[in-house]
Give the backbone structure.
Amino acid sequence: MHTLSNIASGIRTLFGTVPGMNGGSALGDNSFWQRKMLTHFTRMDMNGDNFVSRDDFKSLVKSLANKAKLSDQRAFLMQRLVIQLWEDFWCCGEDKGFEYKVPVEEFLGLVINLLKLSDSKALLEEPLSLLFGVIDLDGNGVVNIREWTIYNEAIGVSENDAVHSFEVCFDSKTEVTKEDFIAVGQAFFTVTDERHTSRHLWGPLV
């Protein structure tokens, strides 16, 4: 079981402290930011083993294909997207082997190191763009409430919480563009203000 206190301690030991966005407290000591990152990690940990692996991403696509009754071609394309997301973002472009598993401390350290860079928000665009491609189940370039709900249910968010996050994060739009999603996703990873609506992106915080 992960707790915020032992995660924060591990982050400070491995990566030091990083100033928060917009003059906020250091991310390694910001419990709200840590909860957001732990929430995202938990949603991607499909098998609940406290690690995120290539198999979790493949399981995600399998679940989506079943729930949305995707064609084999569409499922194959989504499989390619998630593998690219796994290799380029979660593995930092390194060949770590098919069996590699990312623990939560490493994931938070990865994000912290990314946020140290001056162009961090721009660097978040690629993984968020890939993830949008997975959520866009029919591949038409926009995400509607049905697709959003199916994706969120696949990662363990209830239908009611998925509907709430869609309405709150995207200003009650009926369809969300890739640009809309990237903007909210960037805020989720960088903002430390607890009042910001991006906190709801992946359902209730853990």
